[in-house]
């Protein structure tokens, strides 16, 4: 696509609207995404007979599954009508698919935890855990479809790469959370998740910027630009620490994990903020359609 | 140009799904005089809240954009005449919700609050909307918006209540030059095609074009389309708006692969990490 040389506009006013969402939404992307990857970790750890990792990952995932709906409800214009989200199932709406996924995910995690606490048969705990483990990766990536299925140039223009940014970032932050929370003995898997997740996240983000071309400008300017610097530095430093010091030192792993979490949260904030900047300047939209 | 009487413009009795005639607007901007009667009539009829009065300095346009409390917006482009360079050319256009054939706002609405009426128009049910704000980012035209104090999303209803009783929408009724024409969409398209020929050939507006009259465009055509005298972006409208379900399908395919990468990565890390 060749950008128009001199896109005209109506007094420089925006064509598409700025997102109506508030800060809670990118925080949810981070918390829900991390929680989803942790549930998958818990499921696989069970198959791998690693009960310590299974339980820790599941409890961290459950915490995220409890925080997520609170964040989403507080973002609504009419929070008292939050149940309307489950009034119908609409496959055409990524938000509807996501709401149902989150509802099922949280219920499954809650059921697994409860079943274990009251001493129900292990098979029941396992079944609930599989449900959460399968829904988890969907929870981590559907939010990218949510952004891609808009008219916002910087989101829409990267709609096929955003899911990989989100899945990589979720894998990294799940590993990061385990590195912060867990004892050294169990950390090898968590550290591998950080390193592999960060690689997928950063490579996909790089590919996304390349694909967007001139439309990627907001990622280098203003608040989104600052957040981009923070997310990249924090994620790469966190992964480097985890790969080196984190191997021997409990403290090194915890600091590396914390940096990974900061990077992953900043990444979601960066992408969210870029949507505002992309909508505010009509030339991005006109260029993307010329 | 054909002049339709209000009688001709009245609608058939409401019929549900498939049986009804699709109704819409043809906004012929070549005869808009910028009187803003449409903006006022819309506000009055629909009880749309006022905005804080302010002066933009952008010609006569202080409304600036469509939004939760501006369902008609008259744009004023004031510029040197492009042909002679002497004097001023005025472009005036009354913008409105496009009532798209493939309406992104309706497709992405998670509650089902946005629906298509028996007239083929797209309307928000205010008693269902929970203010999630998804439609705001989804609309390719920046039309629908959340009202800050209320929290819910609002936009043009194409005067659903008036259509129900066989009346035409308030803006069309108030328009003194018939720049805003209301009627069955296929009739309007035919009329617009003829009008375009006149504007292009006899009035010499080389850039004149129909915007949204073509069913093969990105959103499957507008229920409210326009005759413009210059490119859409000059009026603050997107040049090639699009919403395709197959785009959504490919996004889900990418997300599924990404979810698989996540699951595989986690499994690999756990298996490889086992001592």
Overview of this protein structure:
The complex is a heterodimer of chains A (290) and B (275). Chain A is an all-alpha fold and 290 residues long. Chain A contains ten helices and no strands. Chain A has one domain: Formate dehydrogenase/DMSO reductase fold (Up-down Bundle). Chain B has 275 residues and is of the alpha+beta class. Chain B folds into two domains: 6-243, Alpha-Beta Plaits (2-Layer Sandwich), CATH 3.30.70; 244-275. Chain B contains eight helices and ten strands. In chain B, a hairpin with a 5-residue loop joins strand 4 and strand 5 (122-124). Chain B is globular. Classes of the chains: A mainly alpha (290), B alpha+beta (275). At the A-B interface, helix 1, helix 3, helix 4, helix 6 and helix 7 of A face helix 3, helix 4, strand 6 and helix 8 of B.
Described by the principal axes of the CA atoms, the overall outline of chain A is: globular
What is the H-and-E element order of chain A?
HHHHHHHHHH
Indicate the radius of gyration of chain B in whole angstroms.
Answer: 22 Å
Overall pLDDT level of chain A: 95
- Please indicate the count of domains of chain A: 1
Continuous helix count of chain B: 8
CATH topology of the largest domain in chain B: Alpha-Beta Plaits
